[in-house]
Amino acid sequence: MAFGYDTITPEPVSKLIDEFNRLPGIGPKSASRLVFYLLRAKREQSERLANAIMAMKDTTIFCNRCFNITVDDPCSICTNANRNERQVCVVEEPLDVVALERTGEFKGLYHVLHGAISPVEGINPEDLKIRELLSRLRVEPIEEVILSTNPNLEGDATAAYLAREIIPLGIRVTRLARGLPMGSDLEYADEVTLGRALQGRREM
């Protein structure tokens, strides 16, 4: 049901409103505005949008080493000889990699978990890329793992779990400093705050 539009709006329009509304951060009003904007726009603009979406779905994959998004496997960060292979920054989502790269402070590698532990939502350690991280730590020359999960309940629980698993391996484990506001997401932090959080990371 497309928020009351189904009785007064053609079905294709109602369906597209529904699909936009399924996207994170897009409510019914924003979804409707986007659809009616596309209705007024030139056909070429809608075609470019549709083609860009399909090209993304057809060509974007996950790096088999760090699980960040990429079109080449391994990704450009993992294959960059100038990166410090002795440091790995663990994040929840690919957008967090983008945020950290913007700071220019971190020169190591990454590992993307694709979520955080949340029993309430049914997300357990085995649902994340934790097994793959531990496998990397056993075969790669990694000396420090920087836990950069979000500063909220789920992120802290994930960081605590990872620390318990990693410290016995004899690898240094640090956590981003609390310059980040509690309850926020890494992807929304500004470069200065995030850079200071990296510089001021603490031992776990």
Write structural notes for this entry.
- With 204 residues, the protein is α/β, with parallel strands linked by helices.
- The protein contains 7 helices and 7 strands.
- Helix 4 (94-103) links the parallel strand 3 and strand 4.
Topology:
Blueprint: H1 11-21, H2 28-40, H3 43-59, E1 61-62, E2 69-70, E3 84-91, H4 94-103, E4 108-112, H5 130-139, E5 144-147, H6 153-166, E6 172-175, H7 191-199, E7 202-203
Parallel strand pairs: 3-4, 3-5, 5-6
Antiparallel strand pairs: 1-2, 6-7
Helix pairs in contact: 1-2, 4-7
Q: Could you give the order of the helices and strands?
A: HHHEEEHEHEHEHE
What's the alpha carbon Rg, rounded to whole Å?
Answer: 20 Å
Total count of strands: 7
How much of the polypeptide forms β-strand, as a percent range?
5-15%
* Main sheet strand line-up: 4-3-5-6-7
Tell me the distance between the termini.
49 Å
Short description:
This protein is 41% helix and 13% strand. By secondary structure, the chain is α/β, with parallel strands linked by helices.
Keywords:
single chain, 204 residues, alpha/beta, Helicase, Ruva Protein, domain 3, Dna Topoisomerase Vi A Subunit, Chain: A, domain 2, 5-stranded mixed β-sheet, 13% strand
